[in-house]
Amino acid sequence: MAPAAEMLPGAVNPRPRLLIVDDQPLNIRLLHQIFQADHEVFVATSGEDALLFCETQLPDLILLDVVMPGLDGYAVCRQLKLDARTSEIPVVFVTSQSDSTEEEDGLAAGAADFIAKSASANVMRARVNTLITLKHQTDLLRSLAQLDGLTGLANRRHFDATLDAEWRRGTRSGNPLSLILIDIDFFKDFNDCYGHQAGDLCLQRVAKCLQSGFSRSYDLVARYGGEEFVCVLPETPLDGAEVKAHTLENAVRALAIPHDKSAVPGGLVTISLGVAVAVPTLGSQCADLILCADRALYLAKRAGRAQVKTLQI
Hints:
- This protein is of the alpha/beta class.
- It is built from ten helices and eleven strands.
- The chain has helices at about 25-35, 45-55, 75-80, 100-110, 120-145, 155-175, 185-195, 195-210, 240-255, 285-300, and strands spanning about 5, 15-20, 40-45, 60-65, 90-95, 115, 175-185, 220-225, 230-235, 270-280, 310.
- The chain has a six-stranded mixed β-sheet, with helices on both faces. A five-stranded mixed β-sheet has the order 8-9-7-10-11, with helices on both faces.
- The protein starts with a strand and ends with a strand.
């Protein structure tokens, strides 16, 4: 069976996403039959395929065979737990053995549970559903802790964790990582003129505008602090990030929020943007990318604001 998504048409609520990793077609068919009615089931026939799948799509739970050619289940589990994006996905080893040493090795690798291949379908469903429920509850609490209370964007903590994870991923893939640092022009003057309540509303409108400018699920828009925002664009070269920055600058200007105290011609709220890109390498630091974007933002402000400047490490 080729790796694929099995989906029921007309589903109203999204079903839990389950990834089955096994090199034996018979085992895949059996597990697929058990879970297809209540889960969106994906299949990987090797450890390498499972890791590639998780690079672009995040399942809610992984059913993982221990013995496979190439990367075995333990190696796959360890790699998943080392990546911030996949570390919280529950991994359940599906095994034909009941060896205590095997269980100890699996738990040491980061597994959440073991299920015997001889277990009944009802037992498998119950244990998987319990783990998925716990994960969803944990995800909800984590998402609330990672949101900025005023704008609803990701907060600084979430940004720091995401940038670190994307930097480490870039060191493995060799793909460029871009950063856009954004500042609302003369925002202190806006607050002084219109009041802090209007300032909060301005921040919310700008944040919503910035968020709507991104469609890729792995891009991140966060509130960096005060009137500053930051965008993380994985696998994006400098020219692509620069085009996106100009699009964002125009979109915020198009909001036509009055700003009579702005020194930018036009009397509207505008933003300055600094764009930086790097190809992460072992031994390099993601802090250098932030400094580079900050430098580009400084150049945009110095040149008159309401514009985009770019730098490349």
